[in-house]
Amino acid sequence: MKKENNINHYIDLHAHLDGCITVGIAKKLAALQKITLPSAADEELLSILSVPDTCEDLNDFLKCFDLPLSLLQTEESLEEAVYLVLSEMERDGVIYAELRFAPQLHTQKGMPQETAIQAALRGLKKSPIPGNLILCCMRGESNQKENMETLELARKYLIEDGGVVAIDLAGAEAIFPTENYEEFFAKAREYKVPFTIHAGEAGDAEDVKTAIQMGAARLGHGVRIAGNEEVIRLVKDSGVFLEMCPTSNRQTKAVTDMSGYPLKDFLERGLKVTINTDDPAIERTTLSGEFRYMQTLLGLTEDQKQQILFNSIDAAFTTDKRKKELHQQLLF
Ligand SMILES: [Zn+2]
């Protein structure tokens, strides 16, 4: 019997706060802080805040974070941004979201990391949908102290639902390989702070292997394991979840030929894939848009979409009670 109930509820597990600042949100944040934006025209702001569909250059993509980050340097703006972004997600049909941000990138005006976290938590409390925060640590050369502070704060604020639930490692994977962070994640394990790691995005399958060996519960992207049977098997056997982000992968050139995008293949081989946005405002997409994209590109069926969303529920850093509720919401 053919199913008629098309999916219209979604779960986003991989969205960066500073990549979710749309023109509308940027204007609100600027007004709140009496900051003059580089342009008053929406079209021009859109071209500063996002890349067109034809984006060919990673630098163009990365440049888009400058303005949003400059608007997210005060408590008020962070609180408001978390609230506004989650509200926008709700309008897209998202019923649960894990929003991530790097507290150390919000200290440009002297705001301590802990104050940034507290502000984001206040924004989360006002959210119309349930959600949680993931604190990003950043790959880099001279920020070990900042990363350690983020980990200590994650330990301090860690909660099972409704707050800080995990940490992440983001940044230039190809320059600072995952293996450099072995000690760091050993500490996270000691502290019992769950973590996801960006791996197999700009780096290769080896990074994915390392991240799994370090105990990552989930991996950001993981798309570059395609073609490496050994690591594909490891991903499958370990049960690690892949937070895949199709438009992001196309625009940053993590994947060069989208016609061979491995999401459906991974799914059919039993890998636990999920679909997420990454930086929806920069990519000019939404989560429902990503599901439509995968349906058009790969012919994902409604059953497959449902399976992917069930994977998202299983992967979520939240309580069993919340997961049960999300299951119910997805089915009805
Ligand atoms: Zn990401």
State which percent range the strand residues make up. Answer: 5-15%
Main beta sheet: strand number and arrangement? 8 strands, parallel
**Helix share of residues?**
40-55%
Ligand roster: zinc ion
Report how far the terminal alpha carbons are from each other: 18 Å
Mean pLDDT across all amino acids = 95
Physical arrangement of strands within the biggest beta sheet: 1-2-3-4-5-6-7-8
Key terms for this structure?
single chain; 332 residues; alpha/beta; eight-stranded parallel beta sheet; 16 helices; 14% strand; binds zinc ion
Q: What does this 3D model show about the protein?
A:
- The protein is an alpha/beta fold.
- The chain is about 45% helix and about 15% strand.
- Helix 9 (about 205-215) links the parallel strand 5 and strand 6.
- Helix 5 (about 75-90) runs parallel beside helix 6 (about 115-125).
- It contains 16 helices and 8 strands.
- The protein has helices at about 25-35, 40-50, 60-65, 65-70, 75-90, 115-125, 145-155, 180-190, 205-215, 230-240, 245-250, 265-270, 280-285, 285-300, 300-315, 320-330; strands spanning about 10-15, 95-100, 130-140, 165-170, 195-200, 220, 240-245, 270-275.
- Zinc ion binds near residues 170, 198, 220 and 278.
